[in-house]
Amino acid sequence: MIGHYAKAQFKFTANNSSNNFKAKIFVENCTTGRCNGKATIILYDKITDQEMQTFTSKDLDFGLTEMQNAQLGWLDLGKYQTPLIFGDFNFDGIEDLAIRNGNNGAYASPSYDVYLSANNKFVLSAPLTKLASENLGLFDVDKKNKQLSIHIKNGCCFDKTINYKYDAKQGLYEDSSVIEDSSIPDYVTVITQKLVDGKMKKTVQKFKFKDYYNQ
Asked: What stretch(es) of the chain map to CATH 2.40.128?
């Protein structure tokens, strides 16, 4: 199986992005400093070396260092260089996986396909993939508060953060949000919403620009 991919594609390993898994990556295009295009990712158990699952990406976009030459054969990607991101995205204590799939987010930011672990397999999550594909990059993961946060921007003067919770029964739902609107000169309007007893409670406050951003 590996021989089929290795003949025509650039080859990488990702051994440091997870405590439980490692991967072999085959990607279509690599130029100086960057790789992208169609890709195949084969995931292995880190302890047993057993092949676990195979994934594809339409555009596995990631950067290379000045010292890395993809023409030379197998290259090991650094922990923060790999286009594979492992984390517990639904807070069930089990590692999940996000795979880079182009730059389809807002302002051409990175987009990801998100897979949740279920019965020793990774299953594509449509809601989490949507969150990770339509906003400013991958969502932030807050382990302490068990929430995911996405960021939205519209020009210079509008920023919005939405915080989501993940419930085993009802799935993903919006828990709170904060809008910072500085479209009025010298002022910032802050609109906060919080889910209380099943209903969104809204608060609107206005601050002087210099006071709000210097506090």
From this structure: 8-127
Query: Which tokens belong to 210?
Result: 């210099």
Can you read off the two tokens belonging to residue 36?
């992208």
CA dihedral 133, 134, 135, 137 (to 10 degrees): 20
Residue type at position 126: A
Q: List the chain pLDDT tens, one digit each, 215 residues.
A: 555 555 558 999 999 999 999 999 999 999 889 999 999 999 999 999 999 999 999 999 999 998 899 988 899 999 889 999 999 999 999 999 999 999 999 999 999 999 999 999 999 999 999 999 999 999 999 999 999 999 999 888 999 999 999 887 888 999 999 999 999 899 999 999 999 998 999 999 999 988 887 76
Minimal CA–CA distance to 13: which of 66, 68, 95? 68
Closest of 35, 40, 101 to residue 63, by C-alpha: 35
At 213, give phi and psi (nearest 5°). Answer: -90, -5
3-state SS assignment for residue 61: coil
Topology given in CATH for the domain delimited by 8-127: Lipocalin (2.40.128)
